[in-house]
């Protein structure tokens, strides 16, 4: 069957009065780099402040974190993924902290945040090796780049390797370890063990560490890839609020404007990294139960989640929870938001029209195009 493929990447949020690269106005200067997690990192700060040492420290911390939890860096996570089933793998302290946080969030979200989808992420073509320039097939399940769907045998095998609760964590005598589950599954004659993918959690962890380095009473903002933000105070406004634009996940342009400050903002969406085959959208957010990208066939029914923007105190927690809410689907997401008292804006689509759901205060939130809105 001949297929049509389209690969699309997008930034999640923007400032309504400026281009992110240039900082917000004449009151802010900015450093930026493309060195971390394959996306742009920006720190905008008041002009005239001496900030080079802090920026160097932020980059050093980000490099350490990325090496620790990148799936292809030779660090702790890549060693874990390469290990045999049942093997005990030594971790660096940073990886141990991220593993522990991931296990906490896995439990708190009733498994909807699940980093044990590493095999599925690779199978669907969203791992770093698959999106790298010069990609060439290197595993038995590889196929022509994102032009045909994976075999069901691999989907069944890989989703059975997604029980993250079976990952053990140990620490002794100043050393740290993860124990890989002693479980293997065969697909097309080859055995596979669990693999992890920390995705946006690594970027969020970087943002939280950078926030500590910058310190309290800061002004300006941090951006890791546009989908993970730390907002301090806006020195250009009397009330310190930023005008934050939330991109429209379907129409392009701006969906909403939010006035906010001193908060971490995390956005997940099916429009950021996806491809289309025969008119079906396959995005990078994987449902560990179905084994499919969310919103695709055999995944969610009814209104489908297309974007979530979450406002909270921790960028790492926000990144994990925004992903979890996308996987939960609308009804579970609404219940979870109410239970946890999270500040959120999310958008659902029934395939014909979109609807925005939010509990943000009316005085700090405004839609920028005609769309149905439900207060939750």
Concise structural overview:
This protein has 376 residues and is an alpha+beta fold. It has helices at 52-69, 76-82, 93-108, 118-123, 128-131, 152-159, 199-214, 315-328, 330-340; strands at 5-9, 13-15, 28-36, 39-46, 88-91, 168-172, 175-179, 185-187, 190-192, 221-224, 228-231, 242-247, 254-260, 263-269, 273-277, 280-283, 304-312, 343-349, 354-358, 365-367, 372-375. Helix 1 (52-69) runs antiparallel to helix 7.
Largest sheet: 9 strands, mixed
The protein's oligomeric status is single chain
Number of helices: 9
Assign an overall shape. Answer: globular
* H/E topology pattern: EEEEHHEHHHHEEEEHEEEEEEEEHHEEEE
What is the average per-residue confidence, as pLDDT, rounded to a whole number? Answer: 89
Give the amount of beta strand, in percent: 25-35%
Instruction: State the low-pLDDT regions, or none.
Output: 1-11, 15-24
Helix content: 25-40%
Distance between the termini: 44 Å
Question: What spatial order of strands do you see in the largest sheet?
Answer: 3-4-10-11-14-17-18-19-21
Q: Compute the CA-based radius of gyration.
A: 20 Å
Number of strands: 21
* Protein structure class: alpha+beta
């Amino acid at each position: 069957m001949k297929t049509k493929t389209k690969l699309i990447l997008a930034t999640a949020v923007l400032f309504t009065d400026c281009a992110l690269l240039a900082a917000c106005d004449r009151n802010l200067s900015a450093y930026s780099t493309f060195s971390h997690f394959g996306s742009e990192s920006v720190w905008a700060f008041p002009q005239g402040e001496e900030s080079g040492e802090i920026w160097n420290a932020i980059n050093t911390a980000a490099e350490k974190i990325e090496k620790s939890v990148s799936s292809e860096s030779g660090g702790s996570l890549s060693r874990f993924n390469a290990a045999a089933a049942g093997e005990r793998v030594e971790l660096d302290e940073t990886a141990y902290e991220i593993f522990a946080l991931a296990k906490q969030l896995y439990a708190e979200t009733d498994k909807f945040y699940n980093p044990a989808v590493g095999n599925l992420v690779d199978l669907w073509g969203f791992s770093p090796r698959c999106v790298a320039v010069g990609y060439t097939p290197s595993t038995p399940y590889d196929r022509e780049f994102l032009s045909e769907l994976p075999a069901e045998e691999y989907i069944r095998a890989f989703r059975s390797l997604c029980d993250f609760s079976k990952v053990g964590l140990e620490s002794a005598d100043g050393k740290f370890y993860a124990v890989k589950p002693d479980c293997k599954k065969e697909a097309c004659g080859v055995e596979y063990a669990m693999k992890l993918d920390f995705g946006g959690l690594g970027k969020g962890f970087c943002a939280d560490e950078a926030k500590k380095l910058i310190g309290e009473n800061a002004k300006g903002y941090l951006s890791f890839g546009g989908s993970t933000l730390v907002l301090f105070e806006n020195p250009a406004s009397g009330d310190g609020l930023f005008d934050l634009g939330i991109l429209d996940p379907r129409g392009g342009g701006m969906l909403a404007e939010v006035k906010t400050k001193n908060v971490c903002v995390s956005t997940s969406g099916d429009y950021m990294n996806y491809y289309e085959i025969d008119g079906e959208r396959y995005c990078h957010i994987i449902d560990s139960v179905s084994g499919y990208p969310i919103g695709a066939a055999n995944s969610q029914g009814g209104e489908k989640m297309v974007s979530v923007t979450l406002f909270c105190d921790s960028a790492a927690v926000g990144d994990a929870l925004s992903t979890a809410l996308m996987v939960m689907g609308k009804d579970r997401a609404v219940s979870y938001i109410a239970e946890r008292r999270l500040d959120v804006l999310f958008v659902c689509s029934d395939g014909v029209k979109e609807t925005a759901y939010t509990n943000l205060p009316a005085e700090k939130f405004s839609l920028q195009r005609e769309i149905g809105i439900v207060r939750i």
